[in-house]
């Protein structure tokens, strides 16, 4: 049985063709707000039910409740505020207006304005990211946001152009796919990286206990030096071709901008995958972390607060290669000292690639390495 959507019902907020036509005909009559890519991606996720039960951006009461309790006012777990910010100079509308949200020159959505409110950025940062240090990329983003938040329901008018349409599945599609495959239990894997052997062991260890594995890389805005989206996809395609069971592993992408909120974001990632129909969710070491802001297993501990989440987290200790065991293991199963261990580090592997070294086979599959090397420049430029 695939998981029930969070809150019980899969949200679909897509305008009918008729409404869309009417609104687009009259588009000059509505106040307009220009949105950035991250907001457009959130809109897409609201509209397709990835963020069920949200039907729009958080109103003040919901926002405060999410900050303070990691729950919506009706007590449903919700850990990351999904908000639309505007600056004072763009506030050319009032409560109860219908506005149009534009990404570049595309009208992406209409929104009914229920609420316009000020918020405290430091409080936002401290509660969500557990720090107000602007070197944290999530905090930096909050500090650059407009001073007002707009809450209210949305309807999608146009899909965002998607270069990876072929690889994208919506919750309504994965739910059908999982049923067709007759999966009773499906574990989801969240990732923003090309796969190393640690990832593979994590996924396969989890798959040992369930019917299906859903690998769901998040695509979207990246930091300088990260792998490009197409490289992550091709690397996974290669890995699937050579090393994954075809009847039980599924690969599909979702667009999403990482918050780097560690523990809170792990809960959010789990809720997203529950909406895709998954019953289990992998949380390894320092999930969605950045720098040293979170403890290595803090993103696992937070799940204690959510016995009612409706998706079961699967926790794993850090995988590493042990020269004595001659295999990929973790501290629960390996008795050998640190000197025998080679830890996976995305940065270390990337530096090897940049310096023309081939990563050892216990770090990365040869085929994956070759796929990365088939790109002229596999990394995001500044
Ligand atoms: P993110 O957690 O930021 O999405 P990754 O794509 O690297 O970054 O990680 C995806 C998942 O794999 C997370 O749950 C993370 O904790 C886990 N993970 C990554 N490397 C390891 C490892 N060596 N051992 C255990 N878990 C790991």
Automatic annotation (TrEMBL):
Which reaction equation describes what this protein catalyses? Answer: sulfate + ATP + H(+) = adenosine 5'-phosphosulfate + diphosphate
Pathway(s) this gene product operates in, as recorded in its UniProt entry: Sulfur metabolism; hydrogen sulfide biosynthesis; sulfite from sulfate: step 1/3
Which Gene3D superfamilies does the entry link to? Answer: HUPs (3.40.50.620), Sulfate adenylyltransferase (3.10.400.10)
| Chain ranges of the ATP-sulfurylase PUA-like domain | 4-158
Report the Pfam families cross-referenced here: ATP-sulfurylase, PUA_2
Q: Which BP terms in the Gene Ontology apply to this protein?
A: hydrogen sulfide biosynthetic process; sulfate assimilation
Q: Which SUPFAM superfamilies match?
A: Nucleotidylyl transferase, PUA domain-like
Q: Residues in domain Sulphate adenylyltransferase catalytic?
A: 166-374
Q: Which UniProt keywords apply?
A: ATP-binding, Nucleotide-binding, Nucleotidyltransferase, Transferase
User: Which terms does the record give in the GO molecular function aspect?
Assistant: ATP binding; sulfate adenylyltransferase (ATP) activity
Q: What is its EC number?
A: 2.7.7.4
Similarity remark: Belongs to the sulfate adenylyltransferase family.
Q: What is this protein called?
A: Sulfate adenylyltransferase
Q: Which organism is it from?
A: Methanocaldococcus bathoardescens
